[in-house]
Design brief:
This protein is an alpha/beta fold and 225 residues long.
């Protein structure tokens, strides 16, 4: 049986890379819908004292979210394959040494720490969820965001995906080890509509990069609808 692809209505989008990607379609620039950037993430809107607590992953996610989020409370879905891997590995090393685990380190290592901090920084009381689904984390997070919007289409849903390199000895090969983040605002009236690929796409790129290539009009298993 063939199923129709899920189509996401998007209002605007942003992405940030820790280093400029080799793919020319992902070069920095803005076109009014998609804002692509690299280098130092812009988190100047975060209080300086709290800013010092932000990990590279959180900074990347906040850079993107700040560019697409509407004013006021907004429902949010955050997704990440590895989450705060550096902090998780530090906890595992403490456990291996039978050392005491820092409660603060633990609270900042869980997958919902990034959207939780976003809520605190913005005084946002809207609900949020965090998704981790292995290599399919980006796509399944989008399914969650689309489901939330479909359940209540009266307001948009902010979708944020971020991943960092895994620390040694678990480091992934590039480009899956690239520190980057993507933010998509799901809502109507849509500026663009994005069709998700099937369950087993032939695209060798990570889902997040394939999505961005499609939004830039390049070849990808993701398609503009």
């Amino acid at each position: 049986m063939t199923y129709a692809p899920l189509v996401l209505p998007l209002l605007r989008a942003a992405a940030w890379f820790g280093e400029e990607p080799a793919d020319p379609l992902l070069a920095p620039g803005a076109d009014g819908f998609l804002d692509l950037a690299c280098g130092e993430p812009d988190v100047a809107f975060v209080d300086r004292q709290l800013r010092r607590r932000l990990s590279p992953l959180a900074r990347a996610c906040f850079h993107c979210a700040h560019r697409v989020a509407p004013a006021g409370d907004v429902r949010m879905v955050f997704a990440s394959r590895h989450g705060e891997a550096d902090r998780t590995v530090a906890i595992l090393r403490d456990l291996a040494l039978e050392a005491e685990v820092s409660p603060t380190l633990f609270s900042m290592s869980v997958h919902n720490s990034v959207p939780g901090l976003w809520s605190i920084i913005n005084g946002d009381r809207a609900p949020f969820s965090a998704v981790a689904a292995g290599a399919g984390s980006f796509g399944w997070g989008l399914v969650e965001a689309l489901a939330a919007f479909t359940a209540d289409p009266s307001a948009p849903v902010l979708y944020v995906y971020g991943d960092d390199r895994l620390p040694d000895p678990w480091a992934d090969p590039a480009p899956r080890g690239l520190l980057h983040a993507v933010a998509l605002l799901v809502g109507t009236p849509a500026a663009r509509r994005l069709a998700m690929p099937g369950e087993d796409p032939a695209d060798p790129l990570p889902q997040s990069l394939g999505c961005l290539r499609a939004l830039r009009g390049g070849p990808s298993s993701w398609q503009l609808a």
